[in-house]
């Protein structure tokens, strides 16, 4: 493959650029990419490709990983030159293509394109020069050139261990550590006072010990600073017992039956079951929130319910131990406070309104008003006597408090066959919930007799 016609350079914003030692402290940088026409003739470019997935560094390999899609790179800086053309970046996962929006761009002698690749993570590799392949596409051919990035492997090293990673209840163990080329460091001690200690360079920074007596499973972290990114090591000490937190809830009193309640708990169990007291037992995670339930475990009690979390763990002697925690959720009973038509339980409309109306117009008969408490849903239905049509049901549940206009489409012909000139509309409000459903009815009586005879 021929050599490129433009000169390319990639410069990190940190020097020296260190490789990542552990995933808790990743080494990242911004890379400034430039393409320059150092020649005496204009060069027409159709596309430029950069491959950061894996670049060669002697016998070592190094991954420069860009998180997210191509959009995370940001828009390249404006093209510095007479055309000032716009460029579009496509691709991802470390391989990117830059194309001018106009299809091609002519780089005049001395013209330069510059943009920044942000948050490039240096994952691995040794000392040396990482060679990043850059491909250049013109009308004539596709060319390639390697661009070097200096990579330095940090000599900072940290080791952390525990004499025993599984202890008896009320037991102790000793944490031990060694470091190399560390200038400072600290050890977190969750559950202790103080909760962290700073290592003294004159005594215990290079090596040291710390006695700990955790009462629950505990992860200890040693973090050291030196040349390059920080380096951390962790060790977890488990207690040979079953540990359970109380069940945390978003509320102990829901506003209505079926309302959601978020439960959270923490255990070191091997398995957990949630029992709602009605014979419904489900297997649940041993700790919530977690990856599956990021906000918590949601339950929707329809009545007062006591949820019991049953945890089980196998001890190192082979015996199984179980424990349980419970929480009770109160659900209020549904009640229907009022349901009225035009402020009354029964209302007879005047017939003058209808006979003076224009045919096929909407004739307002009145207004329904209602108020309910602790309902999970409410619906309105209507029946007619004599039957002049099918019963009516609201297509969607109505709110616990509200009002609804009642009307008929006026047409004299609809009522020619009535045995009685009066039509009774019986409206029913039904609200569902704990100890429900509950209902109330109101009557709206319509006199269809012609007042003029």
Question: Mean of residue pLDDT?
Answer: 82
> CA-to-CA gap between the ends?
104 Å
Count up the helices: 1
Q: Order the strands across the largest sheet as they lie in space.
A: 8-9-4-12-13
Helix proportion range: under 10%
> How many β-strands, per DSSP?
36
By helix and strand content, what is the structural category? mainly beta
Largest β-sheet summary: 5 strands, antiparallel
Q: Mind telling me the C-alpha Rg?
A: 38 Å
Regions with pLDDT < 50 over 5+ consecutive residues? 55-85, 409-419
Beta-strand content bin: over 45%
Based on CA inertia axes, which overall geometry fits? Answer: flat
How does this structure look, described?
This protein is mostly beta strands. Helices cover 1% and strands 51% of the residues. The strands form ten sheets. Strands 8-9-4-12-13 form a five-stranded antiparallel beta sheet, with no helix packed on it. Strands 15-21-20-17-18 form a five-stranded mixed beta sheet, with no helix packed on it. Strand 8 and strand 9 form a beta hairpin. It is flat.
Task: Give the helix/strand layout.
Layout: E1 7-12, E2 27-36, E3 43-45, E4 47-51, E5 55-57, E6 60-62, E7 64-65, E8 87-92, E9 95-100, E10 105-107, E11 112-122, E12 128-137, E13 142-151, E14 157-162, E15 166-167, E16 173-180, E17 182-188, E18 196-198, E19 207-212, E20 218-226, E21 231-239, E22 248-249, E23 261-264, E24 271-275, E25 281-284, E26 297-299, E27 305-314, E28 320-329, E29 335-341, E30 346-349, H1 352-355, E31 362-373, E32 377-385, E33 392-393, E34 401-409, E35 422-432, E36 438-447
Parallel strand pairs: 15-21, 30-36
Antiparallel strand pairs: 1-2, 2-11, 3-10, 4-9, 4-12, 5-6, 7-11, 8-9, 12-13, 14-16, 16-19, 17-18, 17-20, 20-21, 22-23, 23-26, 24-25, 24-27, 27-28, 29-31, 31-34, 32-33, 32-35, 35-36
């Amino acid at each position: 493959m021929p050599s490129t016609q433009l000169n390319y350079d990639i410069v990190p914003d940190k020097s020296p650029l260190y490789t990542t030692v552990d995933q808790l402290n990743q080494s990242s940088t911004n890379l400034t990419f430039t393409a320059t026409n150092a020649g005496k003739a204009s060069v027409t470019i159709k596309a430029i490709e950069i491959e950061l997935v894996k670049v060669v560094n002697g016998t070592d390999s190094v991954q420069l990983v860009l998180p997210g899609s191509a959009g995370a790179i940001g828009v390249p800086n404006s093209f510095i030159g007479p055309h000032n053309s716009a460029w579009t970046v496509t691709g991802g996962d470390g391989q990117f293509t830059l194309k001018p929006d106009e299809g091609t761009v002519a780089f005049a002698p001395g013209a330069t394109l510059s943009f920044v690749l942000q948050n490039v993570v240096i994952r691995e590799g040794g000392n040396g020069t990482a060679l990043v392949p850059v491909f250049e596409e013109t009308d004539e051919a596709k060319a390639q050139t390697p661009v070097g990035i200096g990579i330095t492997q940090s000599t900072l090293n940290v080791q952390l261990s525990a004499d025993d990673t599984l202890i008896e209840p009320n037991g102790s163990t000793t944490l031990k550590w060694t470091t190399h080329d560390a200038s400072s460091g600290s050890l977190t001690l969750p559950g202790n006072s103080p909760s962290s200690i700073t290592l003294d360079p004159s005594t215990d920074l290079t090596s040291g010990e710390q006695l700990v007596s955790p009462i629950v499973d505990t992860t200890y972290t040693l973090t050291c600073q030196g040349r390059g990114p920080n380096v951390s090591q962790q060790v977890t000490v488990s207690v040979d017992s079953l540990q359970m937190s109380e069940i945390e809830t978003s509320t102990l009193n829901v506003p209505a039956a079926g309302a959601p309640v978020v439960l959270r708990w923490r255990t070191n169990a091997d398995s957990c079951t949630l029992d709602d007291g009605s014979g419904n037992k489900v297997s649940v995670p041993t700790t919530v929130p977690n990856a599956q339930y990021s906000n918590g475990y949601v339950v929707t009690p329809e009545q007062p319910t006591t949820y019991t979390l049953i945890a089980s763990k196998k001890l190192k002697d082979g015996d199984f131990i179980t424990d349980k925690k419970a929480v009770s959720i109160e659900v209020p009973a549904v009640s229907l406070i009022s349901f009225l038509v035009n402020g009354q339980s029964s209302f007879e409309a005047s017939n003058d309104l209808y006979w003076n109306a224009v045919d096929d117009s909407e004739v307002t008969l009145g207004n329904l008003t209602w108020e309910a408490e602790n309902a999970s849903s409410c619906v309105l239905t209507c029946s007619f006597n004599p039957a002049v049509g099918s019963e009516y049901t609201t297509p969607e549940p109505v709110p616990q408090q509200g009002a609804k206009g009642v009307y008929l489409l006026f047409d004299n012909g609809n009522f020619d066959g009535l045995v009685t000139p009066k039509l009774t509309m019986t409206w029913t409000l039904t609200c569902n919930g704990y100890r429900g459903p509950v209902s109330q009815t109101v009557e709206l009586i319509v006199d269809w007799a012609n007042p003029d005879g």
